[in-house]
Amino acid sequence: MIVIAHVSDVHIDGEQRSQDRTRAVLRYLEELPYDLAAVLVTGDIADHGTPDEYAVARELLTSRHPLLVCPGNHDDRAAFRKGLLTEETTARPDAPVNQVLRGEGFVIALCDSSVPGEHQGLLEDETLEWLDGVLAATLQEVPVLVAFHHPPVPLHTPYVDGIRQFGEERLAELADRHPHLTAFLAGHAHTAAATTFAGRPLLVAPGVVSALRLPWENPTDHPHVHLGLPPALAFHVLGEDGRLTTHYRTVTV
């Protein structure tokens, strides 16, 4: 049984609240009596993309489990690289931050869907070519989970659906060529959600720093952002039969 913890949208902003909520989630994972295959954090690590925010995030986002982090629309690629990945120099600091984890019996391809200077998402041609290579290099019997920040479909959250991932038809065409692409994982929406994209599950982690009210939950005189709910995360479980199951959990701060 392969268990992957999925965390998203910690939005470290210099305030104690975001730090406390992030610390509580990572502490919960650290105290589990089971070794996880991976901890995945799908973007919006820093709220303003500043070096100081990444310095705090680097202290908080530590784990005894393998941990992978990708940028979101609030992140800055160059500062993200230096602050979280400790890449002091690179020829292209603003290039997409794409990473792969090859575990025992699974692969996670973590794609950068951020667009520098924009809030909407897009997988650049460079990222799609990289992902195509990761999938082609992986044995057909090994499931590949493809993760990014922006969901490539609307999720009934008007606050973020207008800045979701666009150009998604290119990703769908790529998925059609690789049947062992098992599922897509995303963040950004600040709501636990499960839907489909390109004939695969699309599983969205809830937000750590806040939740979003859905249209039928939101009185007109209230903000979309809900600060009163506890932080939450997802557990994605790959069984020996290849079936993927997702469980969602809240965490006490």
UniProtKB/TrEMBL annotation:
Q: What is this protein called?
A: Metallophosphoesterase
Asked if the Swiss-Prot or TrEMBL record annotates the protein with the keyword Iron, the reply is yes
Q: Which organism is it from?
A: Streptomyces sp. R44
Q: What are the alphabetically sorted keywords of the record?
A: Hydrolase, Iron, Metal-binding
Q: Which family does it belong to?
A: Belongs to the cyclic nucleotide phosphodiesterase class-III family.
Q: Which Gene3D superfamilies match?
A: 3.60.21.10
Any one GO molecular-function label of the UniProt entry: hydrolase activity
In this chain the Calcineurin-like phosphoesterase domain maps to 3-191
